[in-house]
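Section 5: illustrative case.
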């Protein structure tokens, strides 16, 4: 049975990936999820799978060498899928240091521990071992608002925020391991994700949550910035396909072909909420375009991101499947069905879950 070590599995994309993998492989794989449970880590995301025999949660920080080396020493890890990171651009502008620590040093620790566990005496690596580093399209900087230029795997790095600079540094470390040691790794650079379990500091869950409560909907600058939105399940599938079919040492860009301006996203969410809320639901009265409030632009705000996912399509056979109109309905439906999840996140109660559920483990 193949054993996966997933870092940051209690976060948004990591928890969706773990769900995806158990749906796809069921009892054919084992997953160890290592997460420090920062404000962004929520074990409630995984409560439906936490009792599986082939799933283990380890609370540890990826910058803690001893803790990570112990996981490798005690388990024959076949695959690492490295999501753990500080991930919010606004937080990185306020406090860059923790981004350098987790995203750069944490990645160095993960690489070093995997290398130590997998390397043979002659410097080659044990058969079948693979490390996948999950990164972002933000490392490439900003594109002109021309609708026709794209990020390719060959686009030079030009990060602008402390977040993207730290992710770019971590990518460079992975590339250095590939070039220096022929370390068996891939890098994926992905566009903006959306879907279930996303922490409501990010645009889409923030707008859904605020609109339902009649709270202001903050929009940076003129609202015309463009992002390329990817439904999180499509991302999980891409990661799995890259590990199965990608060429080791390669980088693959993952994008949704769903470019939208921020203000368009907000308008689509408001229209979809009104379409989906039953006539007698009192929250309908709260949902209004009058809530849209333009606020001072984010510092260094990149204008446009857009990915050309040509390489991953050609080499791996992956394409985005979920168009935005469908993905946003699924996402809103999920938030309707998981009101408690949102309440626990916004009240901070989710942070008690670990203490309540894992105290005797
Ligand atoms: N969300 C996106 O749109 C997007 C797009 C492209 C790439 N990415 C990348 O995907 C990955 C996951 O993003 P996300 O949106 O799920 O992030 P997230 O913030 O929702 O989750 C991050 C997880 O990492 C954990 N973590 C943070 N610091 C840690 C540490 N020092 N040790 C162990 N665990 C730690 C947190 O507890 C949390 O569970 C990140 O590497 C991010 O850069 C995200």
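Designed sequence:
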């Amino acid at each position: 049975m193949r054993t996966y070590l997933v870092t940051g599995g209690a976060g948004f994309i990591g928890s969706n990936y773990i769900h995806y993998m158990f749906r796809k492989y069921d009892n054919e794989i084992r997953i160890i999820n290592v997460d420090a449970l920062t404000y962004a880590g929520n074990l409630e995301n995984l409560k439906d799978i936490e009792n599986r025999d082939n799933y283990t949660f380890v609370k540890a920080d990826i910058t803690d060498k001893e803790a990570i080396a112990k996981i490798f020493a005690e388990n024959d890890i076949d695959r690492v899928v490295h999501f753990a990171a500080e991930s919010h651009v606004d937080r990185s502008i306020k406090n860059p240091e923790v981004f350098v620590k987790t995203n750069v040093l944490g990645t160095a620790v993960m690489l070093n521990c995997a290398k130590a566990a997998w390397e043979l005496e002659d410097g080659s690596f044990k058969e079948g071992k693979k490390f996948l580093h999950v990164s972002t399209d933000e490392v490439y900087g900003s594109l002109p608002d021309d609708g026709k230029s794209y990020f390719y795997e060959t686009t030079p790095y030009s990060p602008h925020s402390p977040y993207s600079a730290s992710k770019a540094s971590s990518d460079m470390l992975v590339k250095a391991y590939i070039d220096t040691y022929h370390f068996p790794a891939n890098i994926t650079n992905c566009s903006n994700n959306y879907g279930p379990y996303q922490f409501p500091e990010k645009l889409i869950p923030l707008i859904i949550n605020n609109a339902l409560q009649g709270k202001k909907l903050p929009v940076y600058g003129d609202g015309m910035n463009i992002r390329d939105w990817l439904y999180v399940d499509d991302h999980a599938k891409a990661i799995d396909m890259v590990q199965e079919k990608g060429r080791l040492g390669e980088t693959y860009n993952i994008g949704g072909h769903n470019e939208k301006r921020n203000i368009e996203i907000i308008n689509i969410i408001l229209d979809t909420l009104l379409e989906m809320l039953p006539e007698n639901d009192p929250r309908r009265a709260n949902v209004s375009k009058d809530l849209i409030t333009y606020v001072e632009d984010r510092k260094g705000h990149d204008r446009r991101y857009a990915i050309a996912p040509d390489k991953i399509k050609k080499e791996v056979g992956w394409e985005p499947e979920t168009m935005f109109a469908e993905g946003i309905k699924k996402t809103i439906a999920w938030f309707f069905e998981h009101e408690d999840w949102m309440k626990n996140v916004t009240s901070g109660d989710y942070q008690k879950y670990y203490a309540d559920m894992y105290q005797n483990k």
